Amino acid sequence: MHFSIKQILVAATMGFLSLSAYAESGESFQTVCINSWMKKIGDSADKVDFKNFGEKYCTCAAGQPLDNEAAIQKAIQLCLSRTLLHDAMDSLEEEVGLSEAKDTDINEYCEDRWNLIYPKQTDEDKKATTAYCECAKPKLMDLIKKAENMTDKEYDDGINDVAAACSGNVKQETPTTATTTTTSTTPAPTAPASTTPEKTN
């Protein structure tokens, strides 16, 4: 069975924003992005949390290359993964505290953010998002252990690295031939730092 988080990123942002919508609006990308994001809110979503997520998400996307349709779609999907982990870790730090956080807390906050932005998941979708959070959990725990000795930028970059590492195929693929399938991931370019409390002066 093959579960690709990339497919979920595409599904969660399907029809979200196009180059033509951005070009024809005459507004900044971030304004168009946030307006488009808020149109995707579901009846069960928390409007405040959904908007806060969208603002962080669009700030990230606005810092990516936006020269053509493919670039915009890449930015949209890249920043969804980054923002999801940044938002989950921000909430975890505020509500639990990094020093008190356990791996089960990380998993809970990660899955909570998936449910916020993509509430109507199929069983296959849930397997993929669960696998994504399982991929991120040990990496974020390692990052937390080092957080006190890291600058704010180093901490943010660390979360970006985890997002990049877990955005590929996070469940093992079943080979269609005798050849073993190897999953590869390409590190993503650095996005603007999100608003995370400073770890050191």
Q: Structural class, from helix and strand content?
A: mainly alpha
Beta-strand share of residues: under 5%
* Molecular shape: globular
How many β-strand stretches? 0
**What is the helix content?**
55-70%
| H and E order | HHHHHHHH
- Overall average pLDDT: 76
User: What does the radius of gyration come to?
Assistant: 17 Å
Largest sheet, if any?
none
Ends apart, CA distance between termini: 47 Å
Low-confidence stretches: 169-198
Number of domains: 1
Keywords: Signal
Model description:
It is a single chain. This protein is an all-alpha fold and 201 residues long. It has one domain (5-165). It is built from eight helices and no strands. The protein has helices at residues 5-12, 19-25, 29-38, 47-62, 69-95, 103-117, 123-146, 152-165. Helix 4 (47-62) packs across helix 5 (69-95). It is globular and about 40 Å long. The N and C termini lie far apart (47 Å). Residues 167-201 are annotated as: Disordered. Keywords: Signal. Residues 174-201 have a biased composition (Low complexity).
